[in-house]
Protein: DUF4352 domain-containing protein
Organism: Crocosphaera subtropica
Amino acid sequence: MLFKIRQGFTVFALSILLLLTSCATQAPSRFDQAQQESTQRGSSAVVKESESGGSFNQFFPPSGGGYERVYTQEKKGFAEAKLKKDGKEVAMLAISDTLNNPSAAKKFEKSTQMIGGYPAVSQGSTGTAVLVGDRFQVKVLSRDPAFSEGDRQAWLEKFDLNGLAQLK
């Protein structure tokens, strides 16, 4: 008899505990809050019309002259490759579709510099970018201090920028 009372009490206590924990509200995580804020601003991660990352690979400069190009990331609207010399990473090469981030194209509006016939901007002390066809940002980032602004500009000119402009 005592066993049945204990068993009944245990079932009752667990039921109450389950009821209380299932009704408790949990504070949103920092990720939930960030998602809500970005959604309220009207931003989205990738737009449907964005080019596939794989379609950008053909416009990257080929390996050669002691440099090796190694693709590292490819997703809708973006492709990236490391540029290595003697096995050491010296630069990062990237193409991105600004349809996914329209504000990225705005920095080129006041550009006075041109590379390969396209507006160019410096991005900090290690980055140089061009805007191709008012849509595609092509960027070279130095990963080694010896890889200079002049090197970044020269590598930007090695991209098939005119071919990329035809993607529209």
